[in-house]
Amino acid sequence: MVIRLKKNKEKAILNFHPWVFSGAIDFVEKHCKAGDIVEVQSSNGSFLGWGFFDPSSQIRIRLFSFEKENDGKSESYWISKWNQILNLKVALLPNDTNGFRLFHSEGDGVPGMIVDIYNKTAVLQLKIPGVIRLKSLLVQFLESVGYQTIIEKHEKQDSKKGEEVTLEKGVLSECIFLENGYRFISDIEKGQKTGFFLDQRENRTLLGKYAKNRTILNTFAYSGAFSVYALLNGAKSVHSLDISKQALEICEKNLRLNGIESSVENGTHKSIEHDCFDFLKQMEPDFYDCIILDPPAFTKNISTVVQASRGYKDINMRAISKIQDGGLIFTFSCSQHISFDLFKKIVFGAAKDAKKRVRILHHLTQSPDHGYSVFHPEGEYLKGLVIQVDGEI
Q1: For a tag site, which of 26, 31, 239, 313 has the least CB within 10 Å?
Q2: How buried is 97 (Cβ within 10 angstroms: 0-12 exposed, 13-18 middle, 19+ buried)?
């Protein structure tokens, strides 16, 4: 199957960008169907690459190969590619860690394919027709390299409820895995994404280095992983804040897994079920000397970036206004459409409105197993800063 581009629309592909948008296409060969592997050509018929076709998406083609001989039509091509990625990923992992992202879509040259590993369990998210066709082969590969339980989790296309999970009969909806020797639950069935946010591993480690003797607020705490790292590295007290009761129940399980008892009486840890925006607005100033702001994506398309920016600015301004002088804020955005430059401008605006002196100590990003291609900057979705608030201007 051949798809030909309009004149002067090949520049991005010549720079190895993996996306072809609908507006760039001039000709589609007859009978080309969703999920087909297609050859992309320039307007003069020159070969550009091989990719998966999806007529229902604005991104019509997602390229996986720029080499004429590697057309992805043989099983051996994919098995070889997946083995290579597996070896590279395992080499990146720290000791005592068996939770990681094996396949990271365009970042690993397998567009539309997400596979997260939790010990001996593999959780799949297959997001485009082309990789859905590879599901059977992918399952065989994962079984051949030792993964005993394979679960598919997929997005509902006709609902606002987000994601649902397909579980084989008798398969547990949760599994326990290790991250830097700490034990965590992946809530596969009911949790967000594949059940756990593996992309924050290095950032949690960094928090642990700063946690000793601090009073910490972990907002949008979800399953409490930042809280676990803080408490196991000497934090004086941690409050885990989330609007979801279910998330806080997983947080409490993760604490117990690591030998931490949550108790209001002893003051070491407390779970708070509350809207994070309202809590930040109402909380007393100068109580916390470390605050973690790790909200869900406030925007998933470019049309709502301005509104999302206001949300990020609001939570950062309130945290900056109320943290103790000298306190640290770990602040993040996982919105793809919020660039790192824009995120820093948002924090600048928040500091300005709060009339506080703020220094940037660290730039943060997703963990190495979530690496993104230099040719596909859109893959850098997680942006973070560690800032120190030095007092009033």
Answers
A1: 31
A2: middle
Please tell me what DSSP assigns to residue 284: P
Q: What is the DSSP string of 267-298?
A: -SEEEEES-HHHHHHHSPTTS-SEEEE-PPPS
Residue 199's alpha-carbon distances to 193, 255, 260, 297, 303, in angstroms, are 11, 20, 23, 14, 26
Rounded Cα distance, 167 and 153, in Å = 8
CB 137 within 8 A of CB 75: yes
What CA–CA distance (Å, rounded) separates 147 from 114? 15
Q: What is the pLDDT of residues 225-272, one digit of tens each?
A: 999 999 999 999 999 999 999 999 999 999 999 999 765 555 699 999
- Tens of pLDDT, residue by residue over 42-95, are 999 999 999 999 999 999 999 999 999 999 999 999 999 999 999 999 999 988
- What's the pTM? 0.92
Tokens 């596969």 belong to 188
The dihedrals phi and psi of 244, each to the nearest 5 degrees, come to: -95, 120
